[in-house]
Amino acid sequence: MKKKYLLILVAFGFACLNIQCDSEFIERTPLGTSTVESFYNTEDELVFGINGVYQTFQGDWWGGAFVHLQPHMEGATENGKICCDWEYEVVAIAKGTLNSTTGGFVLWKWVYGYQAISRINQLLQVIENGIQGVDNSDLAKWEGELKFLRGFVYSQLIFHYGDVPLIINPLTPVEAAQLTRDPKEDVLNQVISDFNFAIANLETTPNRGEFGRPTKQAAYAFLGKTYLYNDRWSEAQAAFQEVLNLEGGAVSLDPDFESLFRGKNEQSLEILFSVQYVGQGQVGAGSGEGSFIQTHYAIGNNPDGLGSGWQSLLHTDKMRDAFYMIDGLPIDQSPLYDTDSVFLRRDPRLGMTFQVPGYKIVGSEVVPYSTFRGFPVEESWIVNQGNPVSSIPGAAGMGTKKWVTEFDETSFSDDFSQDLILMRYADVLLMYAEARNENTGPDAQVYNAVNKVRTRAGMPSFPTALSKDEMREEIRHERNVELAVEGIRYSDLIRWRIAETVIPSIPYIVNRSFDPSKNYLWPIPQSTIDTNPNIMQNPNY
Amino acid sequence: MKLQLKPKISKILFFTIFSVLVNISASAQSGQMTVTGTVKDNQNQPVAFATVIEMGANNGTITEENGEYTITVSKNATLVFSYLGYKQQEVLVEGKSVINIALELDAASLDEIVIVGYGAQKKENLTGSVVAITSEIIEDRGLTSASVALQGTVAGVFINQNSGQAGRDDVQIRIRGIGTLNNAAPLVLVDGIDTPIDEVSPSDIASITVLKDAAAAAIYGSRAANGVVLVTTKVGKKGAKPRLSYSSYTGVTQATRLPNMVTNSLQFATLRNEANTNFGNPEVFGQNSLDYFRDNGPNTDWFDVIFDSAMIQQHDFSISGGGNNSSYRISFGLLDQHGVTPESGFNRFNTRINFSTDLSDKFSIKTGLAITRGDRFSSQENLAGNGSELYDAAEATPLFPAYDDMGRIAIANPDISGASLGNPLATIESSQFHQINYALLGNITLDYEPIEGLVFSLQGAANYRNFNDEIFNPSYFVYDFITGEEFIRNPLRGRSRTYGTSFNTTVSFRANYEKTFGKHYIKGLAGYSEEESNSEFFGASRNGFLTNTIRILSVGDPTSATNFEGGTTWGIQSYFGRLNYVFDEKYLFEANVRTDGTSRFANDKWGIFPSFSAGWLVSKENFFPKSGVLNFLKLRASWGQLGNQIANPNDDFIYARQLSLSETYNFGGSVVPGVAQTTLGNPDLTWETTSVTNLALEMGLWNSSLKLTAEYFIRDTEDILFTVPVSSLTGFSNVIANSANIENKGWELGLNYRKNFGDFRLSFDGNVTHVTSDVVMLNPNIETGSEDRFIYGIDGRRILERGSPVNSFYGVEVAGIFQSQEEIDSAPDHSFLNPNFGPGDLRFVDQNNDGVINQEDRTLIGKEDPTWLFGANINMSYKNLDLSVIISGAADFDSYSTAEIARPFFSNASLEKRWVNRWTPTNTETNIPRLFFTDGPATSINNAFWILDRSYVRLKNVQLGYTLPTSMLDKTFISKCRVYLSGSNLITWTKFPYFDPERPKSNTEDRGQDGFPNLSVVAVGLNLSF
């Protein structure tokens, strides 16, 4: 009988084993979703991850992104004003009231910057660990692309915040809570090293031939810009020279300036790097693939139903007056200037960048408008077939044309395809000229570069025999009009250290202020300091 | 008619254990004879299920419904008659063939057996906090779901029935408050298997046991932090003749409470104009409209249009019985419930087979199989909330009729009725939802007893469920009620299907040992169990159907097709042990330990949960006076730890670094797939730990006719899985972590009184609970306590902060109503909130005395969970008449409502009647501010005006029954017949103004109309036994 009991006990024991008294029982794999651990097993999966990095640049309508509404920064310069305080805190930047809890751009650069960094570092580690079946040398071009993106992000972070924590490997929340800010110089060295890696491993055509991924020339351009922003003129000049060497091949100045910004010439050889958007009608495009730049800048509401953009960016007469006359002279020197017809006989780029009187949408002329539904919107600009209403002092009396596509200039939507250009060859030429002028003075190469830009626009060449200082001023002016409404002016004012005189120079827009003791850097977001007391705030914030 | 509660399952167990203990060799004996007789109680009523055992032999039976028994015994045997709550009697057979027994009440007996985790325990020997209710409390109440049976009947248990929609009772169970910021639902086990309680037919339930403290629940360690509800189904009896029973009720249901709306069109339009002119805006309704309303109405009461009374009926059959070695019970039931709104209803079919048999004298096997089919239809899946007919009834104004002159669905005429939302009848027309659910629950247990007292059990169970949803949106027409203009709605039509299954399995292996040596009694349990769940769903939809009649997905427009799928899985492994020790029947000790591993965590899967408890039966001591009023006294204390592993029941992989597959981008105009990690995950997540200390005192007075139980408990939950901010340097903004702490504290008082006054018998069970649930900490990284807060909900109306109740409401206090402009001018500045404050608007309290009313003045203004719970269960009988009453209630809890019904004219919606008593220059004695449209000064900041007290007392059930005397049934084949009249939710006492105070609790915010009202049921019923 005892044997029988034993047998039965053993049977129970087996039953237990059969029902898996083992630890695998509590190891489960998520269904219907993927985890970092289970993904990135093929080159395609790696590329999907890289595509996901660009998402941090692209953003969506209401949420933020690293660069998605960059032209708004024009509203923090003497050239413009952002309609409303709530639009991404550009007004706080313009008024110098930004602080550690300011949201919008001040927060987004940081948050989305580090979001991009964390995505990039994770993928760089995937590459470092290797992907089975993929040769490591095949991965180098992807590593180059990722390091380009990392260099791009960090170059902006140090520009806006100064010293920042340099993170180049994936890290845990505990590690993140112990980091300190690294000297800007250390981060800069990493940026230069990342761009150099990209230069060495990228071709002059983008990976997989997909327009929008970085190229060798884009990496040179951003490397040069990084040197330039840190006053390292000769290195900047050398990097830009590499781009210039490709002119006629991989890069060129597009003969049609306006077309670059109207949604129809987005793959011009002039465009070195841009954030890509497609309309929602595109196959596979969901919500968030479209651009909302147009919605922000297109003309505003009006009783006819034409025009339902937000017209967020309003332009000052400083902007308008910065454009020379067609004879190449400033308005106060040229005999062509007529104070009654201020838009006539001007640098053609004025009319290509802005909707000026006479411009027609769907047969209706656009004119300034001083009130909108009873609310004062001093420089609003609407389609109106009736009598023009005179603009108030200080308003330029013009609407935005750059970034507003030709297809549908009046709609309010988030599904426009207009890409946001982050680097184009005209900028490279001007930066090259700027660097070379600082190095060698205004030699023929400097003239050659700037004149290409100016003559492409239909303007006469630069006056000859300029001094180095005069040339510097002319290049700065040229940047202001060539790159107007591209969000670059603010960075230029910062790096030239002239922000405190220029930004408040529009007395009719009240409360403009720039405190040079602090505003050359932005504050570190409070939430970051709250979660990591080792991160010190920038001075005077 | 029995006085004593009859936990039938307990009796069987008792009987089984008893017969095993007797354990005399079953050698055949000569001189057998058959003895018959009837067992009656002290009231001369037959006793069913009384145990009749031949002493010293492995032989016994149970009495029938009419008290009769038949047993074959040796001529010189001694028969032992026993029945719970009665003194055991021993009778020598001495050749008598008929032995009738009159049992005597054993008032002091507390030998009730209670189902506890993985076993049963004499109630007297319990050291943890355990409450059981029996089938009497559950049966015959017209319950559509079993969980409602707990309402008012168990101290410390809060039942919130969120909906009276047919087939969607949506019951929320909370035991002793809210112990976590996550899923606070208790573990519900049906015959030991994790099953939704409402999948069990109430008529199949033998008992429900609630394990409230750590000592009682610790054996279920990992899943038990919020308490455990054990449901035991009825089984057959060995050696019993087949017994058939049939019970049914038929009744009428209707909504308990509906809001009172302003339904007079002229009054409505006038008030609507007032809301506008109060703020200098033009009137909405001109004289034309007002004249029309005066002459024509239409004075539509939309709640009256869509709500009606509806039929409900339920039928249950069962057959139970057994042979010498086996027993069975087979039941099946049908529920047919019509909805109280049009085109809605629920049908349920359920069947259950429980069977057990002895394979040999060492082996026995028990098995159960239950199948339930639910068939629910309505216009929308959820008849409350956005887009439902209830929502539309709350929004529609009384300015247009339900039907036009030709009986067609009417819509408002914009010229006459102004802007108005749709006709709820059109909403009903616009969508048809249909869901069929199947649930299959099977379990099998193999018991093996190699030596006396040692039992090995192997148990396996599976629960398969599926749901099959279909929605069709037909085209239909509506007509302008003035012009008759026709409008087509849903011209494209639409259809969607969703199909999902889940499969849960549980396997456990246990060893039980029980032994008495002299004054020592020990019982030990050791076991292993594992449980897993796998679920998945998929669905598809299309629109573009040509007609309303052909509804096959494949005929819809293929370019509109969408499809989706998903699923999840989890697994838990556990080892557990329990030791009971009783010395001299006076000193009780119990220790439990359980260790659990879960798939829901990555690195730290395992948690250990111990508990210890002790009890002292003071009344068994020699020094305890034997003749005093106090005849029973027991003290018990327990401490233990329990675990919780569920942050969100829908997310089994929160630890993982999950990838979003929708981070798409595009290059050169072509969209490319993009992937990115979008949740940080946390591989170090581990168990939430709940420590419970419980102290209790039990007393019996006057021969235990009055019993009192008092309990005090403290429940601390630490390491609650909570989302905390994380450095943005990680690339993320927050992370789930074991961070928050919550403390529950409270006491419970239970009172039980039983007394017979001749033919009149009375029993009263009452309970009161006081419980608080406070946040101790949310984020340990925040040093300053006052900064450790989390404001959430719409406009930040909810707050979690250190030292405050969980689920608190946050806003400014109200100090009355401004009566004049002078008062406004001298008051703290309100204009920051809204420039339009004027006489008749709310005056807010300047909490920080800075002269300005703003967000800084917010404070706690209410809380969502009740502090007080109470219930009473009163049973009376006189001869064959019986009356039972169940009352339940809760107090000190609130809701915050600002949407459709609460707010005046919310987005052109209707107006609740309390606004008629609004402030006007001539009606200043009121607490209702002046009228506004949608948004006014009263809504400029979250404030206490919108807090509504949900405290209520409800007559949960009242039942009057009559049992036909046995003498009348003697000539029939019927052994028992009872008829009754039952009413549920007939009366509610509450200040809560609209719908039902048992309202939904939702972190996505109530919208005034959320929550389908509960139902009141009036039913007649019949119970028959054959």
Can you summarize this structure?
The complex is a heterodimer of chains A (541) and B (1026). With 541 residues, chain A is mainly alpha-helical. Helix content of chain A is 40%, strand content 7%.
Q: Would you give an account of this structure?
A:
The complex is a heterodimer of chains A (541) and B (1026). Helices cover 40% and strands 7% of the residues of chain A. With 541 residues, chain A is mainly α. In chain A, the strands form five sheets. Chain A has a three-stranded antiparallel sheet with strand order 6-7-10, with no helix packed on it. Chain A has a two-stranded antiparallel sheet with strand order 2-4. Chain A has a two-stranded antiparallel ribbon with strand order 3-12. In chain A, a hairpin with a 2-residue loop joins β8 and β9. In chain A, α5 runs antiparallel to α7. In chain A, 49% of the residues are buried. About 6% of the residues of chain A have low confidence. Chain B is mostly beta strands. Chain B is built from eleven helices and 53 strands. Chain B has a 22-stranded antiparallel beta barrel. In chain B, strands 10-15-16-13-14 form a five-stranded mixed sheet. In chain B, a hairpin with a 2-residue loop joins β47 and β48. In chain B, α7 packs antiparallel against α9. The N terminus of chain B is likely disordered. Chains A and B meet through α1, β1, α2, α4 and α18 of A and β24, β28, β29, β33 and β34 of B.
